[in-house]
Amino acid sequence: MKTQHQHQSRREIEVLKVGKSSLQNREISKSEYQILGHDVRKRVQKRGICNAEPCPNLKGFGEDTSAKILESKGRLALPWGAFHLTNHGVPPSLLSALRRAALSFFRDTPMPEKLRYACSPSAPASEGYGSKMLAGTDPSASTALDWRDYFDHHTLPLSRRNPLRWPESPPEYRDTVARYSDEMKGLAQRVLGLISESLGLRSSCIEDAVGEFYQNVTVSYYPPCPQPDLTLGLQSHSDMGAITLLIEDDVGGLQVLKGDTWVTVHPLQDAVLVLLADQTEIITNGKYRSCEHRAITNPDRARLSVATFHDPTKTVKISPASELINESAPAKYRDVVYGDYVLSWYTKGPEGKRNIDALMLDS
Ligand SMILES: O=C(O)CCC(=O)C(=O)O
Ligand SMILES: [Fe+2]
């Protein structure tokens, strides 16, 4: 008779086979796991995510907010730190082209070819194909791996952009990512401008505080997971930079935290989802909070999303905008050099918003 442990490991391997084989239409060998610097079996780990009540249906999530953001001169109602932008001016054909090219990389490219682009297992946020968000950090910092593969492109400033490091197939891949990066930069500037104005600041205030954008375009691919209640596609976190612009397919799986309830975001065709990130929370002195979010998996369909991060240069010191600080409204956050923030984020792991919480001053 088998012991409980034997049952457990057999079940985990089964889970892996199904998950990974749907990713690449064949079984992956153990040595391939190891090239990526970790054992994918660690992805299967019990997490306490099943206590969530059925998530309220946020139909029209952000639709009203997106209208307001373009018209409002007053404080924006952004209790979620996240909202959908429609009528954003980025051609829907470009959004679809990017999703198509990225999907083709994950679905159609054989694993040996994918591994030509493997990111460095020892450096966090290195460019390329990988599946371990906290690469290069103390292994005890995060034992559970996400049920996700990704491809990270360094896109801005232009000195970081080298399309030769991106997939060469399908043939339009590189050009599509480059055009998409340029469009997202313009959109991020507009949204940060509107957010600044809504606080009575000059429109370039947040952008000036951030400095030249360090932009990364990260495609996430979440294979179907036969036991979604045992995993997360991506653990709970807030993004560390200034603003993230996200597009996704129609599968759904992104959740945002409101109070202590996880709420599923319903994909909105051709919309761009804005996720406010930690440096915007600091610069606005907490008037706008960054969005805590995570991705869940599902047993039936793979999901694809593309997050475009806009971050400060590592040497920039971030602090609450001086215009927002006075005797009755003191600074709520300690100043931080962005590079130190990133280092701490990768060393400790995100665990929700622990890194920004650690900068909060007692009031
Ligand atoms: O896949 C998603 O919807 C979320 C991705 C994300 O949060 C990230 O890459 O930081
Ligand atoms: Fe994120």
UniProtKB/TrEMBL annotation:
SUPFAM superfamilies membership: Clavaminate synthase-like
GO molecular function: L-ascorbic acid binding; metal ion binding; oxidoreductase activity
Nucleotide-binding found in the keyword field: no
Fe2OG dioxygenase domain ranges (all copies): 212-312
Keyword Oxidoreductase part of the UniProt annotation: yes
UniProt keywords, alphabetically: Iron, Metal-binding, Oxidoreductase, Vitamin C
Cleavable signal peptide: none
Family membership: Belongs to the iron/ascorbate-dependent oxidoreductase family.
PANTHER family: OXOGLUTARATE/IRON-DEPENDENT DIOXYGENASE
Protein name in the entry: Fe2OG dioxygenase domain-containing protein
